[in-house]
Amino acid sequence: MRIGIVGYGNMGSAFAKALSRSVGKENITVFEISSEKREKALEEGFAVARDLFFLIEESDLILLAVKPKDVKGVLEKIKEAVQDKILVSIAAGVDIGSMEEVVGKDKKIVRMMPNINVLVGRGTIAVAWNEAISEQELSRTLTTFSVCGSLYEVPEELFDSFTALAGSSPAFIFSFVDALAMAGVKEGFSYEVALRIVLDTISGSAQLLRDLGGSPNEWITKVTSPGGTTVEGVAYLERKGFKGIVMRCVEKTSEKAKRLKG
Ligand SMILES: NC(=O)c1ccc[n+]([C@@H]2O[C@H](COP(=O)([O-])OP(=O)(O)OC[C@H]3O[C@@H](n4cnc5c(N)ncnc54)[C@H](OP(=O)(O)O)[C@@H]3O)[C@@H](O)[C@H]2O)c1
Q1: Is 12 in the pocket of ligand 1 (CB under 6 A)?
Q2: CA 237, CA 220: separation in Å to the nearest integer?
Q3: In the chain, what are the domain boundaries?
Q4: pTM for the predicted model, two decimal places
Q5: Residue 33 alpha carbon to ligand 1 centre in Å
Q6: How far does the centroid of ligand 1 lie from the alpha carbon of residue 191, in Å?
């Protein structure tokens, strides 16, 4: 599959690198308005198209990786040229219906909501699509994108919630990681060592839950011995409303995503 990427910013470049593992760099072309980023794409081994129409001609699938405010303008320009090619958009808050309004319901549209972890091929990506795309085309698209991370079929009405739960949550997790590492510094470790310890503990805990199953609560009871040290920390988190704070944080993020959409 030949892929054309419009916009080589944070996400466009992350997808280009991840997708090159499934289709090869030689099958990826980039179109970008910033000369600095065009230069970067070339340095990183991707062909750069001189205009949008050349990009479309060279591609079976076009990935729109521009800011939400720029999506409509790009779609207006390419709506005639796109024909039966697959359009994939990762723009936050831009739903399939509003893209169909510009290009028509007969165009094959896939909407994705990724997170930054695509950079290391471990993204968490929501996917929805319209009726114009065939089962075979969809399956080919999903197989191609599976190198970018885990794909979840999500109804569009849950995209804002997904954005909060998986799109924004790396920032919440980085805050938690930083807080734990700083706690390690307070206890006497260097930040660098504390950060490594925290990252190992977090990825080990995630793997344990994944491999051995069971609910997080069951595992909490397994690491807290009666009257022991761990329960002391868990009790403090509960007293301060830790879970409530995290739940409200996701809720507020989701509300903001809905408000932005207007
Ligand atoms: N960043 C995330 O974690 C994240 C997560 C989920 C979804 N997304 C979505 O991913 C999309 C891209 O976000 P980003 O953070 O990668 O943005 P970004 O870094 O600003 O990248 C967008 C790039 O597209 C360029 N561009 C603008 N209009 C263009 C056009 N007509 N043709 C070609 N290139 C054009 C921009 O150039 P200029 O800078 O010169 O305008 C910029 O280099 C957004 O829609 C966002 O909602 C991002």
Answers
A1: yes
A2: 13
A3: 3-156, 169-261
A4: 0.91
A5: 11
A6: 33
Other Cβ atoms closer than 10 A to 170:
15
**169-261 matches 3-156 in CATH topology:** no
The domain defined by 3-156 carries CATH number 3.30.200.20: no
Do β-strands 123-129 and 108-113 pair in parallel, antiparallel, or remain unpaired? antiparallel
The one-character DSSP state at 3 is E
CA distance 197 to 8: 34
Is 1.10.3730.10 the CATH classification of the domain at 169-261?
yes
Two structure tokens written together for 255:
């509300």
CA atoms of 217 and 155, how far apart (whole Å): 28
pLDDT digits (tens, 9 = 90+) for 156-193: 999 999 999 999 999 999 999 999 999 999 999 999 99
Ligand 1 pocket member 32 (CB < 6 A): yes
Q: Dump pLDDT digits (tens) for 6-25.
A: 999 999 999 999 999 999 99
